Amino acid sequence: MDLFDTPRDTTPPPHAPLAERLRPASLEEFVGQEHLLGPGGVVRRLLESGRPASLVFWGPPGTGKTTLARLLAAQWQAAFVEFSAVLSGVADIRRVVDQARARLKQGGRTVLFVDEIHRFNKAQQDAFLPHVESGVIVLLGATTENPSFEIIPALLSRLRVLVLHPLGEAELERILERALRDPQRGLGGRQVELTPEARAHLVATAFGDARRLLNALEAAVEAAPLGQDGRKTVDLELAEQAVGRRALRYDKDREEHYNLISALHKSLRASDADAALYWLMRMLEAGEDPHYLLRRMARFASEDIGLADPYALGQVIDALHAFDLLGMPEGALALAQAAVYLALAPKSNALYAAEKAVKADIERFGHLEVPLHARNAPTRLMKELGYAKGYQYPHDHPEALVGQQFLPQRLRGRRYYRPTGRGREKWFAERLDYILRVRARLQARAKSEGAED
């Protein structure tokens, strides 16, 4: 057999690690990445078209990059060739290409899979480039690093980058259940039981990584004593030993969850960066979903900081992108950075108060009509009815300010947003005060001239 030929039988041997044995053998078994495999997803469209394409799968470990590459090659009925960017050189690349060219003449396609494609050196990438461009090989790469920095522009322009996300807890639960019940490839024939606490700990400390989850499960099962009834029971202590991490007292559906998130919010609001870091890390170490914490911090940035520091919300959004790039545990630092920024930023709840005041008026007065001059008039009938009549285009006036009001008649003069003098909001307060003074002057002038508002 040639070095680069792929064996026909790729079924893992019985002694292979659980994570390898349980690798999905079909797209129906694949769990997660619905944005790629669901209706309208990129991978789904590629499969439906039947036309192979060169791709790079970019995402954290244990999210299905290698598995997805193998399944795509099988769906395309192409030979699957794995290539080592570390152990192979340009001469090996020529041999792969020669075999792919010969296979193509016989009507067959070749999918070349490069794991850790970011380890490709420039000479290797240059050697592959013309053959990817000509279609002799279909290149599938997997990487945990940003392809923009690791792949030469000429090759990257011929590849489509698909981003994979860490698996959610529900998806990890499905994988765990299959591992416990599958009698051929999993642990279904070994009478294994997990206590609820052990199950929750294994899922929480997998941090979106299916391989990490299955390796920990296998280690815990191997360490579990065999009971008199022939069953193996994995409790929390065994799960902790397998993971190398103690479970903190934390129930994401009950009081402790709400106690900790309340402590985080109040620490941020009180500008106590140290306490905020402590409660944030307590929740992360206990297995809280980082996306939940990011959602709560995004709300905090608008509710408790607002325009006192307009960059606060951007810090949280940047932390979200960084976390999705890095995953756990490296991505936790991005959350910590956002938390410290939020804690130290000047505080204002003016936006929150404005939102509440607006909702109260909507509830009180119902659906008030839009003033005619504020309406759009795309048809002649609307123009005849007075829609947009008298509208003053701000850019036609000095400083782009006009005296017209745009609230419903019943609410004329209402003030909802009242900025504080803290942080950047001091500038907004001064700007708003100036706008109101100019608007009042223009309104007084229009009234003396008998102009309509």
List keywords for this structure.
7 strands, two-stranded parallel sheet, Helicase, Ruva Protein, domain 3, Zinc Finger, Delta Prime, domain 3, 4 domains, Rossmann fold, alpha/beta, 20 helices, single chain
Write a brief structural summary.
The protein is of the alpha/beta class and 453 residues long.
Name the structural class. alpha/beta
Could you give me the name of the CATH homologous superfamily of the largest domain?
P-loop containing nucleotide triphosphate hydrolases
Q: Which percent range describes the beta-strand content?
A: 5-15%
Structural domains: how many: 4
N to C succession of SSEs: HHHEHEHEHEHHEHEHHEHHHHHHHHH
Nearest-angstrom radius of gyration?
30 Å
Q: Give the mean pLDDT.
A: 86
Helix content: 40-55%
User: So what's the overall shape?
Assistant: extended
What is the CATH C-level name of the largest domain?
Answer: Alpha Beta
Q: Strand order across the biggest sheet?
A: 2-3-4-1-5
Count of helical stretches: 20
Quick one: how many beta strands?
Answer: 7
What is the name of the CATH architecture of the largest domain?
A: 3-Layer(aba) Sandwich
Per CATH, what is the topology of the largest domain?
Rossmann fold
Largest sheet: 5 strands, parallel
User: Low-confidence runs (pLDDT<50, min 5 residues)?
Assistant: 1-8
How far apart the termini lie comes to 87 Å
